[in-house]
Amino acid sequence: MNSSIRLGLKENWRQFTLLVLVNMLVGGMVGLERTVVPLVGTSEFKIGADLVVFSFIIAFGVVKAFTNLISGVLADKYTRKRVLVLGWLVGLPVPFLLAWGPSWRWIIGANVLLGISQGLAWSMTVNMKVDLVGPRKRGLAMGLNEAAGYGAVGITALLTGYIAATHGLRPQPFYIGIVYAVAGLLLSVFVVRDTRPYAQLESAQTPVTTAGEPAHKPGLGWVFRETSLRNSNLFAVCQAGLINNLNDGMSWGVFPLLFISLGVGLEGVGWIKAIYPAVWGMGQVFTGPLADRIGRKPLIVWGMFVQAVGHVVIGAEVWSPLTSGIAGSVLLGAGTAMVYPALLAAVSDAAHPSWRASSLGVYRFWRDIGYAVGALMAGVVASRFGLIWAVHLAGLITFLSGVLVWVKMVPPLKKEAVHLNTV
């Protein structure tokens, strides 16, 4: 083992900072779609069915989820850096397809590529930061990573809304994505260093003490079962991640159409769509280290409850549509900021370093399936009962998910070995 390799945020701050910048660019690629793409479907391509409009989110969520699942395996086989570069190569055509695709099928195709790109690139920025910092500052590392990514989602959603209001829905709002993709690829190829040796160092320092855990590195099937079902803490984390992104998938498709129908202008919709991920992103600078101090479970439970209140504020329409949308988005963002780094850190706590990358991939699989589930649920409910009922149902499901974490999750999670508490 290279004696110059040391774990810690302070010891590796240069590479860590670079990876924060790279993840800002990764997040910006998703922000391209938050405000504009649902309106492209209804206004430019004249799609009347909500489920068809939301099909681009379903495609994105399913593809990203399955890519997350294999990303850890690919990282262990081919190194983190190679997988990161591959993610950017796959994502390079996306802004061009969004800007000039001649039919809705091209937009869906762009989202298939975006899902693969995000599943590879975002997964690697998570794994690489976890590798660098070691176990002590994991919550802080995840908070900074997700703050960078989702802060960029919010800023880009706001910028594309303003550009669309001034220049039209296409192609100008997507020019930003070309800059993101090229910059992310160049940084990943020429500046980022691989971090797998850091994971190997931590693995060598971490004993395997759990009865029933294989002494050798387990296969993906074992990790999938362990993370998804057999360990009660990890089961609670996976379902909460899925429901959290169900909210995001629902809001991604529903909010632009809902608030436009309520008389909110395109700039206002841009603000509503930007505030949610911006608060989500920036809040994690504080909630990440807080998860290290007070534990994962309180932030997860109360974060889900705060999101449920956000749905109530939007669905009850107590104030004007714009005011309700902004207030609800602040609550959704705050609740998600509480949940997101705590969930990632909880998985990293429970999984041994020898199979942590694969376990994170399984968790991110379930989490990002939530995009597809949320969009599908929203499309079906909106078609039958109206867009606002998709918001109501998401709020109820989110509350129940928080209750399930409260009942199932047993703090504190051990940082050195997973305990097989079965569901």
List the helices and strands and how they pair.
Layout lengths: L12 H22 L2 H8 L5 H4 L1 H24 L1 H12 L2 H7 L3 H30 L4 H30 L7 H16 L5 H10 L14 H11 L1 H30 L4 H29 L1 H21 L4 H30 L5 H30 L1 H22 L15
Helix pairs in contact: 1-7, 1-8, 1-9, 4-5, 4-7, 4-16, 5-7, 5-9, 6-7, 6-9, 7-8, 7-10, 8-13, 8-15, 11-12, 11-16, 12-13, 12-15, 12-16, 12-17, 13-14, 13-15, 14-15, 14-17, 15-16, 16-17
The number of helical segments is 17
Distance between the termini: 38 Å
Shape: globular
Secondary structure class reads mainly alpha
Uncertain segments:
413-423
Strand content: under 5%
The number of distinct structural domains comes to: 1
Which superfamily, in CATH terms, is the homologous superfamily? MFS general substrate transporter like domains
| CATH level-1 class | Mainly Alpha
CATH T-level fold name? Growth Hormone, Chain: A
Question: What is the total tally of β strands?
Answer: 0
Question: Helical proportion?
Answer: over 70%
Rg:
20 Å
Mean pLDDT value: 87
Largest sheet: none
The assigned CATH architecture is Up-down Bundle
Give, in order, the helices and strands.
Answer: HHHHHHHHHHHHHHHHH
Transmembrane segments: 12-32, 52-71, 83-100, 106-126, 147-168, 174-192, 299-319, 325-344, 388-407
GO molecular function: transmembrane transporter activity
Subcellular location: Cell membrane
Pfam family, one: MFS_1
